[in-house]
Automatic annotation (TrEMBL):
Biological-process GO terms, alphabetical: glycolytic process
Keyword Metal-binding: no
Name by which UniProt lists this protein: fructose-bisphosphate aldolase
Classification of source organism: Eukaryota, Metazoa, Spiralia, Lophotrochozoa, Mollusca
Major enzyme class: lyase
Protein's UniProt keywords contain Lyase: yes
EC number: 4.1.2.13
UniProt keyword annotations, A-Z: Glycolysis, Lyase
InterPro entries: Aldolase_TIM (IPR013785), FBA_I (IPR000741)
Domain of life according to the entry: Eukaryota
């Protein structure tokens, strides 16, 4: 990436939650100069497990909140290149690709 670019945003783009987190971690674990800011924008890769656990039921709110905290911690570690992997989540390894998805 040219140094003149002020920032780069990594998108999860249909990757599984675990793949997106691992890839974010790998990018941030690279040593050397990085003249640009790196951030990430995860939609499905942050919420798929949460929604799967919640199922729209009030009785599942606490479990869904715990799932969100787990995913947020994993991505927080990956954002600084310190994610070790192996978190078990409801949709962790499931592909989140949606054919012909339009934004």
């Amino acid at each position: 990436v040219p140094p003149a670019v002020p920032g780069v945003t990594f998108l999860s783009g249909g990757q599984s939650e675990e793949d997106a987190t691992q890839n974010l971690n790998l990018i941030n674990a690279i040593k050397g100069p990085k003249p640009w800011a790196l951030t990430f924008s995860f939609g499905r890769a942050l919420q798929a497990s949460v929604l799967k656990v919640w199922e729209g039921k009030d009785e599942n709110v606490a479990k869904a909140q715990a799932e969100l905290i787990t995913r947020a911690k994993a991505n927080g570690l990956a954002a600084v290149g310190k994610y070790q992997g192996g978190l078990d989540s409801a949709a962790g390894g499931q592909s989140l690709f949606v054919a012909q998805h339009a934004y």
